[in-house]
Amino acid sequence: MTAPTTIGKIVKSNTHIDYVCQVFAPGEWSEPPRPEDHAFGRFVAVQLPAREEAQEAPALVGVIYNTVLLNPDFGSLGPRLSPRDEQEIFTPDYLVEKATLVGILALGWRDERGCYHQGVPPLAAAVDAPVAVLSEEALRAFHREENGGRLALRYAPILLGMNSPLVPPLLLTLVDRLIQLFPDEAPRLRVVRENVAWKSIVQPAS
Prior knowledge:
The chain is globular. The chain is built from five helices and seven strands; from the N terminus they run ββββαβββαααα. It is an alpha+beta fold. It has helices at residues 84-90, 136-142, 156-160, 167-181, 186-205, and strands at 6-13, 18-23, 43-47, 59-70, 99-110, 116-118, 130-133. It folds into two domains: 6-142, no CATH class; 153-206. A six-stranded antiparallel β-barrel has the order 1-2-5-4-3-7. Helix 4 (167-181) runs antiparallel to helix 5.
């Protein structure tokens, strides 16, 4: 089985379920992530500390909902005493690197038995916790009731309660992905999609 692609590390949190991940830049990781690995709507796993007797490393299951680009050079474009390449040689510790940050909403978790749960996780991630792309197999398991039951979307109220303009397109992206993963559930998922699309049109005007 191919190891999941690591995209970055947790650098801060805004709430118990809202995290900020710094995406690894070239040179910071053996295999830098591709843009599609940290795209809008991508499901990821945030590693949690594990006990020695744990069957599997626990993790938060989240989805990328926002991207922020940091560029310290913006606004400081005046003349310099030396070119940029010379500054990198003589004062490397003075330079602040550009960075790509992505917002992650934790929609559930994987426990130490390897079972997936949807909802607000009881545990929080730590600073520098690795963030990796959630595999397709894990994504299917996360959306099935325990013991291979019906498709579950218990995290939808969490997203809808955020009152953010990014939520409707995020939900539409997630539903489209689930239609591909669960073709047998496509009729029910299309109803959900139509409701979300309708509310995204009506509610801003109300």
